[in-house]
Design a protein that fits this description.
By secondary structure, the protein is of the alpha/beta class. Helix content is 43%, strand content 14%. It contains twelve helices and eleven strands. The structure holds 3-hydroxy-3-methylglutaryl-coenzyme A and magnesium ion.
Length: 300
């Protein structure tokens, strides 16, 4: 049956803002993060300590992280780190939780990390070890788990192999990414089954859906039925990935919340407060939010 409680892992300030054309001022990012915390999100991914030349939108990661963490709330505030330099910067800014991001395909690994799948995992190993030494939990992302814009449909054993290696490295949870939003529910169920067969229990997975083809909520429902209890989404559905041109925004948090509430699954998020915040951010970004729930709730 369905779980009774789900954790929403909000990625708006990171996955959302990393691809927006306008660079959001640091003060607005901090207001956004404060609003997400106030709306009850239990985990908010707030920044990336990557090369500022690769992702200029998040070049203020230090100020965002140190600023957000000042108001030490119970909200988890993980940040992305690609390498040891990134981890050092993240810890110096006060981060207490980090994420590394691997790829199931060679092409995306090259484009996103400037090295192949194996070399990227080799880059992450010392990062995960150093974080663990400091009791800093690490999430391991796997991108392109369903389809890849250059390689087409992605074989499940490629995904399983990368996910297992991240787990063996010491990642506490693994986020299965549909980076370009091409997954459909049958594929989701089959992949979760394959991961479980390899020893990766659904309780320690998260699903990360982008809504390019409008399948994200159907995919969430399939993953819930398979026992997954953590889902990534972005407030207002902002975002995409700068190195995967065909990716649109993440599943909107508002849409996810509406589904979970309807299913009677506990999530702890205040939908009204979140909607007001997403409208405010849409104004700042100068484009309407793609969230259907947000549009329905705020129609005059
Ligand atoms: P590289 O060029 O191979 O690395 O990039 P390098 O070591 O040769 O360094 C190149 C330059 O970057 C140097 O600066 C370094 O100092 C600097 P330069 O001398 O040219 O001025 N540098 C750094 N600066 C700050 N912080 C660092 C850092 N490391 C190097 N940590 C690298 C390798 C990984 C750094 C690069 O490829 C990169 O930054 N990639 C980031 C890509 C990215 O952020 N993608 C988006 C996140 S993934 C995603 O969105 C998918 C996800 O949402 C899940 C899903 O949807 O599937 C998670
Ligand atoms: Mg993403």
């Amino acid at each position: 049956g369905m779980p009774t409680k789900v954790r929403i892992y909000e990625v708006g300030p990171r996955d959302g803002l990393q691809i927006e054309k306008s660079v959001v001022p640091t003060a607005d990012k901090l207001e956004f993060i404060r609003g997400l915390v106030a709306a009850g999100l239990p985990a908010v991914e707030i920044a990336s300590f990557v090369s500022p030349r690769w992702v200029p939108q998040l070049a203020d990661a230090h100020d965002v992280t140190s600023g957000a963490l000042v108001e030490a709330s119970r909200t988890r505030m993980p940040v992305l780190v690609p390498n040891e330099r990134g981890l050092e910067r993240a810890l110096a800014a006060g981060a207490r939780e980090v994420a590394v991001f691997a790829s199931a395909t060679e092409t995306f690994a090259q484009r996103n990390l400037n090295r192949g799948v194996d070399a990227a995992l080799e880059m992450f190993a010392p990062v995960v070890a150093a974080a663990q030494e400091q009791q800093v939990p690490v999430r391991g992302y796997v991108s392109m788990c369903f389809g890849d814009p250059w390689e087409g449909q992605v074989p499940m054993d490629q995904v399983v192999s990368v996910a297992v290696r991240l787990r063996e490295m010491g990642c506490a949870s693994i986020s299965i990414g549909d980076t370009i939003g091409v997954a459909t529910p049958g594929h989701v169920t089959a992949l979760i089954d394959a991961l479980r067969a390899a020893g990766l229990e659904p309780e320690r997975l998260a699903m990360h859906f982008h809504d390019t083809y409008g399948q994200a909520l159907a995919n969430v429902t399939a993953a819930l039925a398979a026992g997954v209890t953590e889902f990534d989404s972005s407030a207002g559905g902002i975002g995409g990935c700068p190195y995967a041109g065909s990716a649109t925004g993440n599943l909107a948090t508002e849409d996810l919340v509406w589904l979970l509430t309807g299913l009677g699954i506990e999530h702890g998020v205040d939908l009204d407060a979140l909607s007001r915040l997403s409208l405010w951010m849409a104004e700042r970004l100068g484009r309407p939010s793609p969230s259907r729930v947000l549009a329905a709730l705020t129609r005059d």
